[in-house]
Amino acid sequence: MAKLNALPQGSTVLVTGANGYIGSHVANTILEQGYRVRGTVRSPKPWLDELFQSKYGKDKYDSITLSNFEDEDALAKAFDGVSAVAHVASDVSFSKDPNAVIPWVVRATETVLAAAAKFPAIKRVVLTSSSSAVLIPETNKAGVRVDENTWNDSAVKSAWDPNLEEDKKPYYIYAASKTEGERAAWKWVEENKPGYVFSTVLPNCNWGEILHPEIYGSTMGWVRDVLKGDHKAFALYVPQYFVDVVDTARLHAIALLGDNVESQRIFGFAEEANRSDVFKTLRALRPDNANIPEPDENEGHDLTEVVPAKKAEQLLKDYYGRGWAGYKESLEAGIRGLITMVESAQKKSLGPEALESDDEDQRFANRVNQALRDFNHTVPLSLLAWDVMMIAGIDRVDANWQALMVFGFLVLLRVIVGDLGQWLTSLRRGFWAWLTGWRVFNRSSIDEKV
After folding, report:
1. Residue 402 lies in a domain
2. Residues in a beta bridge with 305
3. Keywords on this record (predicted)?
4. Which CATH number is 246's domain given?
5. What is the average pLDDT score of the chain?
6. Of 116, 160, 327, 447, which one is least surrounded by beta carbons within 10 A?
Protein backbone atom coordinates (compact mmCIF):
# COMPACT_ATOMS: atom_id res chain seq x y z
CA MET A 1 0.00 0.00 0.00
CA ALA A 2 0.97 3.62 -0.42
CA LYS A 3 2.54 5.29 2.61
CA LEU A 4 1.15 8.03 4.82
CA ASN A 5 4.57 9.55 5.38
CA ALA A 6 4.52 13.02 3.82
CA LEU A 7 5.43 14.33 7.28
CA PRO A 8 8.17 12.97 9.56
CA GLN A 9 6.96 10.60 12.28
CA GLY A 10 6.33 12.46 15.50
CA SER A 11 5.17 15.63 13.75
CA THR A 12 2.22 17.50 15.23
CA VAL A 13 -1.01 18.00 13.30
CA LEU A 14 -3.47 20.69 14.35
CA VAL A 15 -7.14 19.67 14.12
CA THR A 16 -9.69 22.44 14.58
CA GLY A 17 -13.01 21.49 16.12
CA ALA A 18 -11.51 18.32 17.57
CA ASN A 19 -14.47 17.82 19.89
CA GLY A 20 -16.92 17.46 16.98
CA TYR A 21 -18.11 14.31 15.26
CA ILE A 22 -15.80 14.56 12.25
CA GLY A 23 -13.03 16.45 14.05
CA SER A 24 -12.71 13.80 16.76
CA HIS A 25 -12.40 11.07 14.14
CA VAL A 26 -9.81 13.05 12.18
CA ALA A 27 -7.78 13.47 15.37
CA ASN A 28 -8.16 9.78 16.21
CA THR A 29 -7.07 8.68 12.73
CA ILE A 30 -3.99 10.91 12.78
CA LEU A 31 -3.07 9.58 16.22
CA GLU A 32 -3.44 6.02 14.92
CA GLN A 33 -0.74 6.81 12.37
CA GLY A 34 1.72 7.67 15.13
CA TYR A 35 1.57 11.45 14.84
CA ARG A 36 0.85 13.96 17.59
CA VAL A 37 -2.36 15.97 17.53
CA ARG A 38 -3.22 19.35 18.94
CA GLY A 39 -6.97 19.89 18.94
CA THR A 40 -8.73 23.23 19.13
CA VAL A 41 -11.90 23.61 21.21
CA ARG A 42 -14.06 26.66 21.86
CA SER A 43 -14.02 26.00 25.61
CA PRO A 44 -12.08 23.51 27.78
CA LYS A 45 -13.10 19.89 27.17
CA PRO A 46 -11.28 17.73 29.78
CA TRP A 47 -13.10 14.62 28.55
CA LEU A 48 -11.51 15.04 25.12
CA ASP A 49 -8.00 15.07 26.54
CA GLU A 50 -8.82 12.01 28.65
CA LEU A 51 -10.27 10.23 25.61
CA PHE A 52 -7.14 10.53 23.49
CA GLN A 53 -4.46 10.63 26.19
CA SER A 54 -5.73 7.44 27.81
CA LYS A 55 -5.56 5.71 24.44
CA TYR A 56 -2.37 7.13 22.94
CA GLY A 57 -0.43 8.69 25.83
CA LYS A 58 -0.33 12.12 27.43
CA ASP A 59 2.45 13.28 25.15
CA LYS A 60 0.45 12.49 22.00
CA TYR A 61 -2.54 14.80 22.38
CA ASP A 62 -3.24 18.22 23.83
CA SER A 63 -6.08 20.70 23.48
CA ILE A 64 -5.92 24.45 23.03
CA THR A 65 -8.84 26.81 23.50
CA LEU A 66 -9.56 28.84 20.37
CA SER A 67 -12.90 30.60 20.35
CA ASN A 68 -12.34 32.97 17.44
CA PHE A 69 -10.74 31.94 14.15
CA GLU A 70 -10.33 35.59 13.19
CA ASP A 71 -7.94 36.15 16.12
CA GLU A 72 -4.51 36.04 14.45
CA ASP A 73 -2.60 36.03 17.74
CA ALA A 74 -4.58 33.07 19.05
CA LEU A 75 -4.08 31.25 15.75
CA ALA A 76 -0.34 31.89 15.91
CA LYS A 77 -0.22 30.27 19.34
CA ALA A 78 -2.19 27.28 18.06
CA PHE A 79 -0.01 26.88 14.95
CA ASP A 80 3.32 27.16 16.74
CA GLY A 81 5.17 23.85 16.46
CA VAL A 82 2.76 22.09 14.10
CA SER A 83 3.54 20.62 10.68
CA ALA A 84 0.04 20.35 9.22
CA VAL A 85 -3.46 21.71 9.77
CA ALA A 86 -6.86 20.09 9.34
CA HIS A 87 -9.40 22.91 9.50
CA VAL A 88 -12.58 21.02 10.34
CA ALA A 89 -14.45 23.56 12.46
CA SER A 90 -17.12 25.70 10.83
CA ASP A 91 -20.35 27.52 11.58
CA VAL A 92 -23.06 24.92 12.21
CA SER A 93 -25.48 27.27 13.93
CA PHE A 94 -27.96 26.87 11.05
CA SER A 95 -28.88 30.50 11.45
CA LYS A 96 -31.54 32.02 9.23
CA ASP A 97 -29.43 35.15 8.73
CA PRO A 98 -26.94 34.82 5.84
CA ASN A 99 -25.06 37.90 7.05
CA ALA A 100 -24.29 36.16 10.33
CA VAL A 101 -22.87 33.03 8.70
CA ILE A 102 -21.52 33.31 5.15
CA PRO A 103 -19.14 36.30 5.50
CA TRP A 104 -17.79 34.95 8.79
CA VAL A 105 -17.00 31.53 7.31
CA VAL A 106 -15.16 33.16 4.40
CA ARG A 107 -13.16 35.50 6.66
CA ALA A 108 -12.32 32.77 9.16
CA THR A 109 -11.17 30.41 6.41
CA GLU A 110 -8.94 33.04 4.82
CA THR A 111 -7.53 34.01 8.22
CA VAL A 112 -6.62 30.40 8.99
CA LEU A 113 -4.87 30.01 5.63
CA ALA A 114 -2.98 33.28 6.06
CA ALA A 115 -1.92 32.43 9.61
CA ALA A 116 -0.66 29.00 8.53
CA ALA A 117 1.36 30.59 5.73
CA LYS A 118 3.43 32.47 8.31
CA PHE A 119 4.86 29.20 9.64
CA PRO A 120 7.37 27.58 7.25
CA ALA A 121 7.14 24.32 9.21
CA ILE A 122 3.52 23.85 8.09
CA LYS A 123 3.62 21.68 4.95
CA ARG A 124 -0.01 20.60 4.53
CA VAL A 125 -3.37 22.30 5.11
CA VAL A 126 -6.68 20.51 4.58
CA LEU A 127 -10.07 22.20 4.71
CA THR A 128 -13.21 20.25 5.56
CA SER A 129 -15.75 21.37 3.00
CA SER A 130 -19.05 19.59 2.36
CA SER A 131 -21.13 17.86 -0.27
CA SER A 132 -23.39 20.90 0.03
CA ALA A 133 -20.61 22.95 -1.56
CA VAL A 134 -21.41 21.19 -4.85
CA LEU A 135 -25.15 20.46 -4.67
CA ILE A 136 -28.28 19.98 -2.62
CA PRO A 137 -29.71 16.61 -3.74
CA GLU A 138 -33.06 16.48 -5.51
CA THR A 139 -35.00 13.23 -5.32
CA ASN A 140 -35.37 11.26 -8.58
CA LYS A 141 -33.80 14.03 -10.66
CA ALA A 142 -31.93 12.36 -13.52
CA GLY A 143 -29.02 13.76 -15.48
CA VAL A 144 -27.25 15.54 -12.61
CA ARG A 145 -23.48 15.16 -12.89
CA VAL A 146 -20.91 16.40 -10.38
CA ASP A 147 -17.17 16.82 -10.99
CA GLU A 148 -14.23 18.71 -9.43
CA ASN A 149 -15.37 21.95 -11.05
CA THR A 150 -18.93 21.85 -9.68
CA TRP A 151 -20.02 24.53 -7.22
CA ASN A 152 -23.38 25.03 -5.53
CA ASP A 153 -24.13 28.45 -6.98
CA SER A 154 -27.87 27.86 -6.72
CA ALA A 155 -27.59 27.53 -2.93
CA VAL A 156 -25.62 30.77 -2.74
CA LYS A 157 -28.27 32.57 -4.77
CA SER A 158 -31.09 31.11 -2.68
CA ALA A 159 -29.37 31.90 0.63
CA TRP A 160 -29.39 35.62 -0.17
CA ASP A 161 -32.94 35.56 -1.57
CA PRO A 162 -35.23 37.36 0.93
CA ASN A 163 -38.18 35.38 -0.43
CA LEU A 164 -36.66 31.98 0.42
CA GLU A 165 -39.02 29.91 2.56
CA GLU A 166 -38.20 30.15 6.27
CA ASP A 167 -37.80 26.41 6.76
CA LYS A 168 -35.22 26.23 3.94
CA LYS A 169 -33.05 29.11 5.12
CA PRO A 170 -30.88 27.27 7.70
CA TYR A 171 -29.64 24.56 5.34
CA TYR A 172 -29.33 26.77 2.25
CA ILE A 173 -27.32 29.31 4.23
CA TYR A 174 -25.11 26.53 5.59
CA ALA A 175 -24.62 25.19 2.04
CA ALA A 176 -23.80 28.67 0.78
CA SER A 177 -21.25 29.15 3.56
CA LYS A 178 -19.53 25.90 2.63
CA THR A 179 -19.57 26.83 -1.06
CA GLU A 180 -18.21 30.33 -0.58
CA GLY A 181 -15.79 29.25 2.14
CA GLU A 182 -14.14 26.56 0.04
CA ARG A 183 -14.14 28.65 -3.12
CA ALA A 184 -12.52 31.55 -1.26
CA ALA A 185 -9.89 29.16 0.10
CA TRP A 186 -8.86 27.95 -3.35
CA LYS A 187 -8.77 31.55 -4.59
CA TRP A 188 -6.61 32.63 -1.65
CA VAL A 189 -4.16 29.79 -2.23
CA GLU A 190 -3.96 30.57 -5.95
CA GLU A 191 -3.30 34.25 -5.33
CA ASN A 192 -0.92 33.97 -2.37
CA LYS A 193 0.93 30.73 -3.19
CA PRO A 194 1.76 29.67 0.39
CA GLY A 195 4.53 27.24 1.19
CA TYR A 196 2.14 24.42 2.04
CA VAL A 197 0.11 21.96 -0.04
CA PHE A 198 -3.62 22.66 0.15
CA SER A 199 -6.50 20.21 -0.37
CA THR A 200 -10.17 19.94 0.58
CA VAL A 201 -12.40 17.06 1.64
CA LEU A 202 -16.12 17.17 0.74
CA PRO A 203 -18.01 14.58 2.81
CA ASN A 204 -21.70 13.89 2.43
CA CYS A 205 -23.97 12.72 5.28
CA ASN A 206 -21.79 10.95 7.89
CA TRP A 207 -22.81 7.85 9.82
CA GLY A 208 -20.75 5.57 12.02
CA GLU A 209 -19.29 5.41 15.49
CA ILE A 210 -19.53 8.33 17.91
CA LEU A 211 -16.34 8.36 19.97
CA HIS A 212 -17.66 9.88 23.21
CA PRO A 213 -21.01 10.57 24.94
CA GLU A 214 -20.27 14.31 24.93
CA ILE A 215 -20.28 14.30 21.12
CA TYR A 216 -23.78 14.64 19.69
CA GLY A 217 -22.72 12.98 16.47
CA SER A 218 -24.21 15.22 13.78
CA THR A 219 -26.25 13.09 11.38
CA MET A 220 -25.43 9.90 13.33
CA GLY A 221 -27.00 11.70 16.26
CA TRP A 222 -30.18 11.86 14.18
CA VAL A 223 -30.10 8.06 13.91
CA ARG A 224 -29.55 7.75 17.65
CA ASP A 225 -32.57 9.99 18.21
CA VAL A 226 -34.69 7.72 16.01
CA LEU A 227 -33.79 4.77 18.22
CA LYS A 228 -34.96 6.81 21.21
CA GLY A 229 -38.27 7.73 19.57
CA ASP A 230 -37.36 11.28 18.52
CA HIS A 231 -37.88 11.60 14.77
CA LYS A 232 -37.82 15.38 14.35
CA ALA A 233 -34.27 15.75 13.05
CA PHE A 234 -34.31 12.70 10.78
CA ALA A 235 -37.54 13.94 9.22
CA LEU A 236 -35.33 16.48 7.41
CA TYR A 237 -33.29 13.74 5.75
CA VAL A 238 -33.78 13.41 1.98
CA PRO A 239 -32.38 10.68 -0.30
CA GLN A 240 -28.67 11.38 -0.73
CA TYR A 241 -25.22 9.87 -0.61
CA PHE A 242 -23.65 8.98 2.72
CA VAL A 243 -20.09 8.31 3.87
CA ASP A 244 -18.81 6.48 6.93
CA VAL A 245 -17.21 8.91 9.36
CA VAL A 246 -14.08 6.75 9.55
CA ASP A 247 -13.70 6.98 5.77
CA THR A 248 -14.13 10.75 6.03
CA ALA A 249 -11.36 10.88 8.61
CA ARG A 250 -9.13 8.66 6.49
CA LEU A 251 -9.59 10.95 3.50
CA HIS A 252 -8.37 13.80 5.69
CA ALA A 253 -5.38 11.72 6.77
CA ILE A 254 -4.59 10.92 3.14
CA ALA A 255 -4.76 14.60 2.19
CA LEU A 256 -2.53 15.51 5.15
CA LEU A 257 -0.03 12.64 4.98
CA GLY A 258 -0.34 10.98 1.57
CA ASP A 259 2.96 11.14 -0.26
CA ASN A 260 1.38 11.58 -3.69
CA VAL A 261 -1.71 13.62 -2.82
CA GLU A 262 -1.58 17.32 -3.58
CA SER A 263 -4.09 20.09 -4.34
CA GLN A 264 -7.18 17.91 -4.63
CA ARG A 265 -10.89 18.24 -3.96
CA ILE A 266 -11.62 14.83 -2.43
CA PHE A 267 -15.28 13.78 -2.60
CA GLY A 268 -16.65 11.66 0.26
CA PHE A 269 -19.68 10.17 -1.53
CA ALA A 270 -19.81 6.45 -0.73
CA GLU A 271 -23.30 5.11 -1.38
CA GLU A 272 -26.80 6.47 -1.93
CA ALA A 273 -29.38 5.77 0.78
CA ASN A 274 -32.87 7.01 1.56
CA ARG A 275 -34.92 6.94 4.76
CA SER A 276 -36.42 3.55 3.88
CA ASP A 277 -32.94 2.07 3.58
CA VAL A 278 -32.06 3.43 7.00
CA PHE A 279 -35.26 2.25 8.70
CA LYS A 280 -35.00 -1.24 7.20
CA THR A 281 -31.41 -1.50 8.37
CA LEU A 282 -32.24 -0.27 11.86
CA ARG A 283 -35.12 -2.73 12.13
CA ALA A 284 -32.79 -5.56 11.16
CA LEU A 285 -30.21 -4.44 13.71
CA ARG A 286 -32.65 -3.66 16.52
CA PRO A 287 -35.77 -5.80 15.87
CA ASP A 288 -37.15 -5.22 19.37
CA ASN A 289 -37.03 -1.44 19.11
CA ALA A 290 -40.58 -0.17 18.59
CA ASN A 291 -39.42 3.41 18.03
CA ILE A 292 -38.19 2.76 14.49
CA PRO A 293 -40.81 3.97 11.95
CA GLU A 294 -42.19 1.95 9.10
CA PRO A 295 -40.16 2.40 5.88
CA ASP A 296 -41.53 5.06 3.56
CA GLU A 297 -43.29 3.95 0.40
CA ASN A 298 -42.22 5.25 -3.01
CA GLU A 299 -39.67 7.55 -1.44
CA GLY A 300 -37.32 7.82 -4.40
CA HIS A 301 -33.55 8.12 -4.65
CA ASP A 302 -30.71 10.51 -5.31
CA LEU A 303 -29.71 9.81 -8.93
CA THR A 304 -26.72 12.17 -9.02
CA GLU A 305 -23.59 10.93 -10.78
CA VAL A 306 -20.62 11.91 -8.61
CA VAL A 307 -17.61 11.38 -10.87
CA PRO A 308 -14.81 12.18 -8.33
CA ALA A 309 -16.16 9.63 -5.82
CA LYS A 310 -14.37 6.81 -7.64
CA LYS A 311 -11.08 8.66 -7.33
CA ALA A 312 -11.63 9.14 -3.59
CA GLU A 313 -12.42 5.45 -3.14
CA GLN A 314 -9.23 4.56 -4.97
CA LEU A 315 -7.30 6.68 -2.49
CA LEU A 316 -8.82 4.64 0.34
CA LYS A 317 -7.82 1.43 -1.40
CA ASP A 318 -4.29 2.70 -2.06
CA TYR A 319 -3.63 3.90 1.48
CA TYR A 320 -5.90 1.71 3.62
CA GLY A 321 -6.41 -1.41 1.55
CA ARG A 322 -10.19 -1.17 1.23
CA GLY A 323 -12.85 1.00 -0.39
CA TRP A 324 -15.97 2.61 1.00
CA ALA A 325 -17.84 1.16 3.98
CA GLY A 326 -21.51 0.59 3.06
CA TYR A 327 -24.36 2.29 4.88
CA LYS A 328 -25.44 -0.96 6.57
CA GLU A 329 -21.94 -1.50 7.94
CA SER A 330 -21.75 2.13 9.00
CA LEU A 331 -25.09 2.12 10.83
CA GLU A 332 -24.15 -1.11 12.58
CA ALA A 333 -20.85 0.41 13.71
CA GLY A 334 -22.68 3.48 14.96
CA ILE A 335 -25.17 1.47 17.01
CA ARG A 336 -22.44 -0.79 18.33
CA GLY A 337 -20.56 2.33 19.38
CA LEU A 338 -23.60 3.62 21.26
CA ILE A 339 -23.82 0.37 23.22
CA THR A 340 -20.11 0.55 23.99
CA MET A 341 -20.53 4.10 25.27
CA VAL A 342 -23.32 3.01 27.60
CA GLU A 343 -21.21 0.20 29.04
CA SER A 344 -18.23 2.52 29.41
CA ALA A 345 -20.34 5.17 31.08
CA GLN A 346 -21.70 2.66 33.56
CA LYS A 347 -18.20 1.50 34.44
CA LYS A 348 -16.74 4.99 34.75
CA SER A 349 -19.86 6.60 36.27
CA LEU A 350 -19.86 9.41 33.75
CA GLY A 351 -23.38 10.38 34.75
CA PRO A 352 -26.96 9.65 33.68
CA GLU A 353 -26.79 11.85 30.60
CA ALA A 354 -24.37 9.27 29.18
CA LEU A 355 -26.45 6.26 30.14
CA GLU A 356 -28.47 6.01 26.94
CA SER A 357 -31.36 3.58 26.64
CA ASP A 358 -34.21 3.11 24.22
CA ASP A 359 -36.57 2.56 27.16
CA GLU A 360 -37.68 5.55 29.23
CA ASP A 361 -38.09 3.49 32.41
CA GLN A 362 -34.59 2.10 31.97
CA ARG A 363 -33.19 5.61 31.57
CA PHE A 364 -34.84 6.61 34.84
CA ALA A 365 -33.47 3.50 36.53
CA ASN A 366 -30.02 4.44 35.27
CA ARG A 367 -30.39 7.84 36.89
CA VAL A 368 -31.44 6.32 40.21
CA ASN A 369 -28.51 3.89 40.11
CA GLN A 370 -26.14 6.74 39.41
CA ALA A 371 -27.54 8.69 42.35
CA LEU A 372 -26.86 5.73 44.62
CA ARG A 373 -23.29 5.57 43.31
CA ASP A 374 -22.90 9.14 44.56
CA PHE A 375 -24.06 8.12 48.04
CA ASN A 376 -20.62 8.99 49.38
CA HIS A 377 -21.21 12.57 48.27
CA THR A 378 -24.79 13.06 49.43
CA VAL A 379 -24.45 11.47 52.86
CA PRO A 380 -21.54 13.65 54.07
CA LEU A 381 -23.25 16.77 52.75
CA SER A 382 -26.49 15.78 54.50
CA LEU A 383 -24.58 15.16 57.73
CA LEU A 384 -22.92 18.51 57.24
CA ALA A 385 -26.37 20.08 56.95
CA TRP A 386 -27.32 18.32 60.22
CA ASP A 387 -24.21 19.67 61.94
CA VAL A 388 -24.85 23.19 60.69
CA MET A 389 -28.44 23.10 61.91
CA MET A 390 -27.35 21.77 65.29
CA ILE A 391 -24.71 24.48 65.54
CA ALA A 392 -27.37 27.03 64.70
CA GLY A 393 -29.39 25.84 67.69
CA ILE A 394 -32.15 23.99 65.85
CA ASP A 395 -33.89 21.31 67.90
CA ARG A 396 -32.33 17.83 67.45
CA VAL A 397 -35.54 16.22 66.17
CA ASP A 398 -36.16 19.02 63.69
CA ALA A 399 -32.53 18.85 62.60
CA ASN A 400 -32.79 15.11 61.97
CA TRP A 401 -35.83 15.53 59.75
CA GLN A 402 -34.38 18.50 57.90
CA ALA A 403 -31.09 16.69 57.29
CA LEU A 404 -33.06 13.76 55.90
CA MET A 405 -34.91 16.17 53.64
CA VAL A 406 -31.58 17.59 52.44
CA PHE A 407 -30.39 14.09 51.62
CA GLY A 408 -33.58 13.30 49.71
CA PHE A 409 -33.36 16.59 47.86
CA LEU A 410 -29.76 15.92 46.85
CA VAL A 411 -30.61 12.44 45.57
CA LEU A 412 -33.57 13.82 43.62
CA LEU A 413 -31.46 16.64 42.23
CA ARG A 414 -28.79 14.13 41.25
CA VAL A 415 -31.40 12.05 39.39
CA ILE A 416 -32.92 15.01 37.57
CA VAL A 417 -29.96 17.22 36.79
CA GLY A 418 -27.08 14.88 36.18
CA ASP A 419 -23.52 14.51 37.34
CA LEU A 420 -23.18 16.62 40.51
CA GLY A 421 -20.41 14.43 41.84
CA GLN A 422 -17.54 16.83 41.24
CA TRP A 423 -19.53 19.79 42.53
CA LEU A 424 -20.61 17.94 45.64
CA THR A 425 -17.07 16.76 46.33
CA SER A 426 -15.70 20.29 46.21
CA LEU A 427 -18.53 21.67 48.31
CA ARG A 428 -18.27 18.86 50.86
CA ARG A 429 -14.51 19.29 51.26
CA GLY A 430 -14.76 23.03 51.65
CA PHE A 431 -17.56 22.94 54.20
CA TRP A 432 -15.97 20.04 56.05
CA ALA A 433 -12.74 21.99 56.44
CA TRP A 434 -14.71 25.00 57.66
CA LEU A 435 -16.71 22.87 60.07
CA THR A 436 -13.58 21.24 61.51
CA GLY A 437 -12.04 24.62 62.21
CA TRP A 438 -15.29 25.87 63.71
CA ARG A 439 -15.41 22.87 66.04
CA VAL A 440 -11.81 23.40 67.20
CA PHE A 441 -12.53 26.94 68.31
CA ASN A 442 -16.09 26.40 69.56
CA ARG A 443 -16.11 22.87 70.97
CA SER A 444 -17.75 23.74 74.26
CA SER A 445 -20.78 25.35 72.67
CA ILE A 446 -21.16 22.50 70.16
CA ASP A 447 -20.92 19.88 72.89
CA GLU A 448 -23.64 21.64 74.81
CA LYS A 449 -25.98 21.58 71.82
CA VAL A 450 -25.20 17.97 70.91
Report:
1. yes
2. 145
3. Oxidoreductase
4. 3.40.50.720
5. 84
6. 447
